[in-house]
Amino acid sequence: TPGEAYGEPDPDHTTQLERTVFPDDFEFEAGMSIPLSGPSGQPFISTLTEISDTTITVDLNHPMAGKTLNFEVELLGIAESNEIPSS
To answer: Which of 34, 60, 78, 81 is the most exposed place for a label (fewest CB within 10 A)?
Structure first.
């Protein structure tokens, strides 16, 4: 569930960026993913939500926020804790 994964999306978790921080030929499209860096340099993905003449607005929620995640796994083998599995 979202509470066990990336949480529910926060509608206030957005920011505006000046278009001038992007290359002149950058083609903006609503819904596109834009890689950004956090204050400590950690990379994360934002989603472009609005475009104006001077700014863009991006959603900073994780792309999987609000989603229920399901995983399908295939068990290929079981190794003893002191064994290194072979490929």
So the answer is: 81
